[in-house]
Amino acid sequence: MSDHLPLNENIVFLVAKAHQKTQGVLKGHLQPLGITPMQCLFLESLWGEDGLSVGDIGRRIALDTATLAGILDRLVNGGWVLRESDPADGRVARVYLTEKAREVIPQLCSAVHRTNDALLHGFSLEEKVLCKRFLRCIKG
What we know:
- It holds the Pfam family MarR_2.
- It comes from Citrifermentans bremense.
- By secondary structure, this protein is an alpha+beta fold.
- The chain has helices at about 10-30, 35-45, 55-60, 65-75, 100-120, 125-140, and strands at about 50-55, 80-85, 90-95.
- The chain has a 3-stranded antiparallel sheet with strand order 1-3-2.
């Protein structure tokens, strides 16, 4: 057996390339809104439950607070979210969607759905289910 693993058999390579493709497709759908894929993910975490702490958002989207800080700053500066101190604990920052963000939620949802549809085009229902299952297993 050879030590060399061909790229088309290398899961690290395949997942990395799949990630590049998904981000590129989503970026194209979000570009007219002026939102990046990471910003969309951040906003999506607030859609059902506004006023989460930065730590809660990080846990939901599996990002550390250092990474979230830059995303949050850009969203605040862009007028997409408000950052406020928690009245019960001033050390905790809570994040709220602005009206500007609420107005584009349907478009963000549409962009995510179109991206999923584009990426899974040509897959059978069974293949779609298996693909998601495999990705969840890899994600852990």
